[in-house]
């Protein structure tokens, strides 16, 4: 029992799929889900064979799964395919004139690309890469704003079999340089800059800085976007627009082995340098194709918008590869959600008739804080399905999303997954699953998920423990670039042959999963292991709180004591009285055990650029020690300085 995590969050509300939604859904009966799920677990090879056959293979695979070299799985061995052909060529006949990407820039400029046009551009782009000597297996860094050329760059690399390594455009020159070095990249694709909150975010200068002394990079392709002045190195730098115009629009897709590397994507661990997560071609395409189809219930008339940046795995899997493999209409937006005004996302939903909308809980909490009036101004009646990803969603935010955005008519899919899993793992199916606010519900097809103790025994209902995935799945990571040992240690050493995602979870009596945050974030108060996320959820349920982050600090008496960092709502009086009230509120909601020993008020919390609160930094602040470890992914350094009580 000592290693169990105590779960204290109780949420009893349930939401069955709305009948009008269910009537038209791809999957609409629980029996059907259960039958397919059983098959996917009992006989995964037959299940995945049936799905994989829907993709256009250049040469058929001989074997669905080879797990003999665990933990390195091989899926669809012997098969050949090309990810860009799966996304583009297969649709040319059936939907060549349909919109593939509907892009809007922050200033309001719109570009619409049909599947035929996108295909032609990607072919040109691929030819440009080849002319610059980039070939199959080479690594190419992509450092771009959210413009159509970013999606094209990714697909053009895939077309010639080059491995893309997208580096989020908000990262510093140093972070880019580290990733270029680690991956051994020989080319960079970038832009002069991008628009962000009405300002130019210059990118080319950061690339120039990153490349000082890096002679291995022979080519920098530069898209024109913001027209800012940039330096130019003759011979190395190439204007993308001009090169595309001069290139042929024909380029046969390179036949890639199912297990050939498709991309690297770096994810930061809680300690040490970022890990280059490796994803290969066949399994990743099968996984993202199927999850997009069923989780987002895509239909031919849908207008689908995932608000993530292509710099994150969510953008790879659910802006580019998954939706395009399904022939979807994909909305892509360059800018921030609150520029030039806090209703910008809803304006876009109305303007483009968005039907399926996928965003992050951190964004939802920001919308709540900005006020309903920015939502109510727009017609959101076309929306039929909502999704969330990235962190546990607190029930208050879930209910707000359901009412204010979804008009109580749209199912919400709370999707749990990771950079490493490549695609969605735990999720409702919107026409099937009765949802519970705060739960990512049940496993997707082929996902054998469980809650285990540290020693590997399966825990009983409602006992908090460690989330585990007991079988390989097609879109799983194949390794960490250049560090096999770290791959084995991080993910496969907790229990033999079982994947350890690093999250705490419990499963309720209905078999629903409730993610309790990263295991690194668990606090131990007087021998009780508590999930920080549940204490945060209790704090946020108070009307005076917008956001909260909870960490443990060493305490002589209790082992650890709870410290809460709280962002007060507009109009709330931060101070001792509110702190006492909040501590009392947590005690009522959860129990005295969880009462914070200290509450600190702050305007903002330190977050990664993907919106995740950086609790390990807060832990150091709470303990009053120097911050150690990687801070390169923090979004706004001034937040950190303020929290520590000085500006640096
Ligand atoms: C970690 C993975 C997957 C794309 C975005 C993040 C947390 C993710 C949920 C969810 C609770 C979630 C987990 C996971 N997480 N989705 N629906 N409910 N927690 O990718 O940066 O690789 O982070 O995000 O802790 O391990 P990532």
Can you offer a commentary on this structure?
- It is a single chain.
- This protein has 648 residues and is of the alpha/beta class.
- The protein has a domain at 522-647: ANL, C-terminal domain (GMP Synthetase, Chain A, domain 3, 2-Layer Sandwich), CATH 3.30.300.
- The strands form eight sheets. An eight-stranded mixed β-sheet has the order 12-11-8-6-7-14-15-23, with helices on both faces. A seven-stranded mixed β-sheet has the order 5-4-17-16-18-19-20, with helices on both faces. It has a four-stranded antiparallel β-sheet with strand order 21-22-24-25.
- A hairpin with a 7-residue loop joins β14 (261-267) and β15.
- The longest helix is centred in the first third of the chain and has 17 residues, at 115-131.
- It is globular and about 70 Å long.
- The structure holds 5'-O-[(S)-butoxy(hydroxy)phosphoryl]adenosine (WT7).
Describe the structure in brief.
Helices cover about 30% and strands about 20% of the residues. It has a domain at about 520-645: ANL, C-terminal domain (GMP Synthetase, Chain A, domain 3, 2-Layer Sandwich), CATH 3.30.300.
């Amino acid at each position: 029992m000592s290693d169990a995590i105590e779960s204290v969050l109780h949420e009893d509300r349930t939401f069955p799929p709305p009948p009008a939604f269910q009537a038209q859904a791809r999957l609409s009966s629980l029996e059907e889900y259960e039958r397919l799920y059983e098959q996917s677990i009992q006989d995964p090879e037959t299940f995945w064979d049936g799905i994989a056959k829907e993709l256009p293979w250049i040469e058929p695979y001989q074997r669905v799964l080879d797990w003999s070299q665990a933990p390195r799985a091989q899926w669809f061995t012997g098969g050949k395919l090309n990810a860009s052909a799966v996304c583009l060529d297969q649709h040319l006949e059936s939907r060549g004139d349909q919109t593939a990407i509907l892009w809007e820039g922050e200033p309001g400029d719109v570009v619409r690309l049909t599947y035929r046009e996108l295909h032609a551009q990607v072919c040109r782009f691929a030819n440009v890469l080849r002319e610059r000597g980039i070939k199959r297996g080479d690594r190419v860094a992509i450092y771009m704003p959210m413009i159509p050329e970013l999606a094209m760059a990714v697909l053009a690399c895939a077309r010639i079999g080059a491995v893309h390594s997208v580096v989020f455009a908000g990262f510093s020159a140093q972070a880019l340089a580290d990733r270029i070095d680690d991956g051994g990249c020989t080319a960079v694709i970038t832009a002069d800059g991008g628009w962000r909150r009405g300002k130019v975010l210059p990118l080319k200068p950061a690339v120039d800085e990153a490349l000082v002394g890096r002679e291995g990079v022979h080519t920098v392709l530069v898209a024109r976007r913001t027209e800012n002045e940039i330096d130019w190195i003759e011979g190395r730098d190439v204007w993308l627009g001009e090169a595309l115009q001069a290139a042929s629009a024909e380029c046969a897709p390179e036949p890639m082995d199912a297990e050939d590397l498709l991309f690297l994507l770096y994810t930061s661990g809680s300690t040490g340098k970022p890990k280059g997560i490796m994803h290969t071609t066949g399994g990743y395409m099968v996984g993202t194709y199927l999850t997009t189809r069923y989780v987002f219930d895509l239909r031919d008339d849908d207008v689908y918008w995932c608000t993530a940046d292509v710099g994150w795995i969510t953008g790879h899997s659910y802006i580019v590869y998954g939706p395009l493999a399904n022939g979807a209409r994909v909305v892509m937006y360059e800018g921030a959600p609150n520029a030039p005004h806090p209703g910008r996302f809803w304006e876009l939903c109305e303007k483009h008739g968005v039907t399926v909308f996928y965003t992050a809980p951190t964004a939802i909490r920001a919308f709540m804080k900005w006020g309903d009036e920015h939502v109510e101004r727009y017609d959101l009646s076309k929306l039929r399905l909502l999704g969330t990803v990235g962190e546990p969603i607190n029930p208050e935010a879930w209910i707000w999303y359901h009412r204010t955005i979804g008009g109580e008519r749209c199912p919400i899919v709370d999707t749990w997954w990771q950079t490493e899993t490549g695609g969605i793992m735990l999720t409702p199916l919107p026409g099937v699953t009765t949802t519970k606010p705060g739960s990512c519900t049940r496993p997707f097809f082929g996902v054998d998920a469980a809650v285990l103790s540290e020693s590997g025994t399966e825990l009983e209902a409602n006992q908090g423990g460690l989330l585990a995935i007991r079988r390989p799945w097609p879109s799983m990571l194949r390794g960490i670039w250049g560090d096999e040992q770290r791959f084995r240690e991080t993910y496969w050493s907790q229990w033999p042959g079982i994947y350890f995602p690093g999250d705490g979870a419990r499963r309720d009596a209905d078999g629903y999963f409730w993610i309790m945050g990263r295991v690194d974030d668990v606090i131990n108060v007087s021998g009780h292991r508590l999930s920080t996320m549940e204490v945060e959820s209790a704090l946020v349920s108070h009307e005076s709180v917008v956001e909260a982050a909870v960490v443990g600090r060493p305490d002589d008496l209790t082992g650890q004591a709870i410290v809460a960092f709280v962002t007060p709502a507009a109009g709330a009086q931060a101070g001792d009285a509110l702190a006492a009230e909040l501590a009392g509120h947590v005690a009522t909601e959860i129990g005295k055990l969880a009462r914070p020993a200290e509450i600190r008020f702050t305007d903002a919390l330190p977050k990664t650029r993907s919106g995740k609160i950086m609790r390990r930094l807060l832990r150091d602040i709470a303990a009053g020690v120097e911050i150690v470890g990687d801070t390169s992914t923090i979004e706004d350094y001034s937040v950190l300085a303020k929290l520590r009580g000085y500006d640096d």
